[in-house]
Amino acid sequence: MSASAAAPPGPEIAHPRSETRPPSGGWRIVAAKELADHLGSTRFVVLFVVLGLAGASAVYSVSQQIVSVAAGVRSTESLFPLLFTLSASDIAAATQQSANTPLPSFVALISLLAPLLGIAFGFDAVNRERSERTLPRLLAQPIYRDDVINGKFAAGLAAIGIALGAVLVVIAAWGVIQLGVIPTAEDVARIVVWYVVAIVYIGFWLALATLCSVVMRRAASSALVAISAWLMVSLFGGLLISTVVGLLAPVSATPTTAEVIANGHLQDALTRISPDGMFQIATQAILDPHVTAGILTIDQRVAVAQQGAPGSILSLDQSLLVVGPQVLAIVALSVVCFALAYIAFMRQEVRA
Amino acid sequence: MVTQASPLAERGRDSTLEPVIEARRLTKRYGARVAVDDLSFEVRPGEVFGLLGPNGAGKTTTVLMLLGLTEPTSGEARVVGVDPMRDPLEVKRHVGYMPDTVGFYDGLSARENLAYTARLNRIPRAVAAERISDLLAQVGLAEVAAQKVDTFSRGMRQRLGVADALLKDPSVLILDEPTASLDPEGVVELLALIERIALERRIAVLLSSHLLDQVQAICQRVGIFYRGRLIAEGSVRDLASEGSRTQDVVEVGAQASDGRPAGVDLVTAAFRGTPGVASVAPDPDAPGRVLVTGGPGIAGALASALAATGLHPVHLRTHEERLDAIYARLVRAAAEAPVAVPEGRTVSLAPAPRRSIRRAPGRAGHPRPERSDQGGGDQDRGDHDRGDGHDHRDDDAGGPR
């Protein structure tokens, strides 16, 4: 045994070459590990509970209102999506009652909290590997470098999808019990479409947070920057847009059509680069079969005005046609943001 | 088991095998800074090669280029016969790598961390479970396999890092600063582990380190790396006997004809006029003995000189140069007279500066327990600052006392 151990190594180990190429899809292995980490993490539980409680209280208050009002109103339209889109104060205003809860609607709450979900699962995606010093070891395994960032992004999206999906299903089921109304197939389809668009929208924030985690070495600064961006867009976005529009395309006291159109175009253009604005428009149009002209772009409003009465009920495919541009814009924003994170990661030196 | 005293050191370099690591004129520039300059070397299967140099010499950059994680500015590398830039995956499939300051996912257990590496290497689940258990036992972590890694000490993490690097059953093992910031006991344990693995698995090991005395015991060949350049390459013995060695230091103890120890003065007087003797000084570590500095092979002449004066030599020992001293000499030479390095080999070196060398109580291959003469053993300091080896000390006074 000593002789064999001390003997020169045989030539067979000189150039071992594997016969088969590796199956592609190293990203799936990374994603599986990351998703397992996410689902077991405290932050997932906290976000799930926060999201669930917020959604439940919004739906509960609105369902109480709907039940009390719906008895008197008989209409052919579907009641179910109202559970998600209406806030208690909306109904109170419509029925001239005083609202006892100033709670926003479910979808408004979600679109407010959604960025937080994206940020939470992305802000430390890459810089955590750096601070734990696992990145060189990870990259020394037989996977491509982009498998790491792709896998992490996919895992983040999956975690978001699971959290949002679970909350949505639980609350919808509870709403059915509260309301005593079975959703129609189209109601379900509308909610599923909205869910997909919401995931893409949250994907934008996930990509932004991932970009921060690539660029910034410290998880704390990455989180801070991402949250600042979220506050900026959510709270001050609308204010900023109207300020800029007012300065660049003012509408005089006696507005001309041209002025209004120019003003509207600028407003639309700026809203189009605001992911928050895009998502709100898409949400309303997808879940609410009433095309309320106020939420559409100026061109769409013109089209609606020419074609018929606002307030008519659209089918799902028509609703989708209406918000096609907005949905595309959200997809494009997410893709661009992820591409930036991807490029930054691929160009970065492995060593800190 | 193997019965030789140090089987790894005995094992010769088998030049008939194809090298598994080949660097050819590798160069890496970051802007104007040259991190690695025209580096060439090769490592054959079954060999432990030490890439030694101070912090910032370009060792990690070299390792990253070999793994295809950083693109060389010019030159090329071949690892297991593959260009790491062309086919990094093929290289990574066969190279186990332990980065300097290896990290693990703190929230996962040792076993889970290794299981992730196994999945990334597409090792089937059943095979992986068995291999992980084996490796954890080999590195002495079997009992803490289920513990989360954030409870692990540095030494445990390093050993887990070795297990992680071996998981893919590599034909090349690259260890970047494996002993940095470990306590002396941890260093001995880890080096023994690496030596055992290199011996049992007969894989090529590339070891980078700035802690020369620690790794010289297990490296068959070393490359001395300084400011991005390989300034010397060969076995520790070759480097010590390379033409650049200009003087011997000999410990001498003698008896007078009546059997009593001859005093320092008597011995010093005996060497007066002996050709080749540069200086004679009392040995600070052994009363009654002297340290003689002179040309190579001076010991014979010293014995004759003693006999001629009627003294009997009872102790005559030529100091062997240790890696630290070789390194200090080479780096000094390179710093004083930067020479063009053809194909990574340097033989034309400036003569080493004059110095008298004293013996210190350290033993080769083991870290000395204390170094009172150097104000705390801060191992993270670059060795070029320290200059001298553990067994030797520069003495500015130089000449005879």
Please describe what this structure looks like.
The complex is a heterodimer of chains A (352) and B (401). Chain A is mainly alpha-helical. Chain A has one domain (27-347). Chain A contains 15 helices and no strands. Chain A starts with a helix and ends in a 5-residue tail after the last helix. With 401 residues, chain B is of the alpha/beta class. Chain B has a domain at 248-318: Alpha-Beta Plaits, CATH 3.30.70. Helix content of chain B is 30%, strand content 21%. Chain B is built from 13 helices and 13 strands. In chain B, the strands form three sheets. Chain B has a six-stranded mixed sheet, sandwiched between helices. In chain B, a hairpin with a 2-residue loop joins strand 1 and strand 2 (33-43). Chain A binds chain B through residues 1-2, 5-6, 8-9, 11, 13-18, 22-23, 26, 29-30, 32-33, 37, 132-134, 136-144, 349-351, and chain B through 1-4, 7, 10-12, 14, 17-18, 20, 45-46, 60-61, 64, 67, 69-70, 80-81, 89-90, 92-95, 97-99, 101-107, 116-117, 119-122, 161, 164, 168, 171, 199-200, 202-203.
